[in-house]
Amino acid sequence: MGMAIFLLGLKLISSAFEGVLGHRLRFLLTGLTNTKGRSVLAGLFGTILVQSSSAIASTMVILVDSGVLSIAQAFGVILGANIGTTLTAQIMSLPLNFLAWPLLIGGFLLYRLHGTPSIGLAAFGLGALFYGLTVTTASLSPLLQHPPVQSALLNLTDTPTQAILVGLVLTALVQSSSAVTGLVVSLTSLNLLSLPAAIGLALGSNIGTVITTLISGMGRDRASKATAYADLLFNLGGVLLVLPLFPWFLRLVSYTATSTARQVANAHTLFNAITALIALPFLDYLAEVAWWWAGIRQKNKNNKG
């Protein structure tokens, strides 16, 4: 119930901003991608506005399919989208649950009475985010206090690799990395998850969210599939890169805040920002790998069949 309300809130926020932006979002993603840095910024701000990296990545598949963007440009946008989607975790880590009902009521009134439906819808959606997570954590807290459940949770997230796999599966099922990371932040704030387990789950959510992009590439040409593979390549590659450095990454994160909830949110943002910066100079090479994976050879990259 609570997670459904949370997902509804995300959808309402996305719909509100898409309604305001309309074709401008596509212009943002196509007109501002002539350099690698601008591609990342376009993906970053586009995802902050619509709050869905999956939506941005799926849009990239369509734009590559139609020949509007190259795979390298789309890859840059996807890198930025992965950073932008961490905003939800940052918001959820703040003690703002008391705003849930004011936002719900105020958003409803703005939507129905004030003639500003988009602002009202966005405010109502944000209130639904807070309320949905409050309901979810309130219902999960008693369950997670039981020793057998705690034991199972500890066993599932005993190592970083296990926690990442659990985060991957959860996100693939829920189809929202924002929902999973938001829940992880909330559970960590209640001391129901350890910091290493929470960060592992958040990292796994980065891989799980790629499922949407892979589905959107199904039935399309090879260039579109290469875009979806590029998304998987970056998210999976980033996690594999950080795994051997996990203890040092934990130490770095511990310096960013005193609250464990804030540390988890910061870990999510830091991971995506650092891996994007590492990947940025190698976009062309990563695109080559994605092309090869999709069966596109050097001589026929411009042919979409």
Short description:
The chain has 305 residues and is an all-alpha fold.
Q: Number of helix segments?
A: 17
Structural class: mainly alpha
DSSP strand tally: 0
Q: What is the distance, rounded to the nearest whole angstrom, between the alpha carbons of the first and last residues? A: 44 Å
Tally of structural domains: 1
| Rg result | 19 Å
Q: Can you summarize the main beta sheet?
A: none
Q: Helix amount, in percent?
A: over 70%
Shape: globular
Order of helices and strands: HHHHHHHHHHHHHHHHH
Q: Which spans have pLDDT < 50 for at least 5 consecutive residues?
A: 299-305
Mean pLDDT: 77
What is the topology?
Elements: H1 2-21, H2 23-31, H3 36-50, H4 53-65, H5 71-84, H6 87-92, H7 100-112, H8 117-144, H9 147-156, H10 160-174, H11 177-189, H12 195-208, H13 210-217, H14 222-242, H15 246-254, H16 260-279, H17 283-293
Helix pairs in contact: 1-8, 3-5, 4-5, 4-13, 4-14, 5-14, 5-16, 5-17, 7-8, 8-11, 10-12, 11-12, 11-16, 12-14, 12-16, 13-14, 14-17, 15-16
Give an overview of the whole structure.
The chain is built from 17 helices and no strands. It has one domain. Helices cover about 80% and strands about 0% of the residues. With about 300 residues, the chain is mostly helical.
Which features characterize this protein?
305 residues, mainly alpha, 78% helix, disordered C terminus
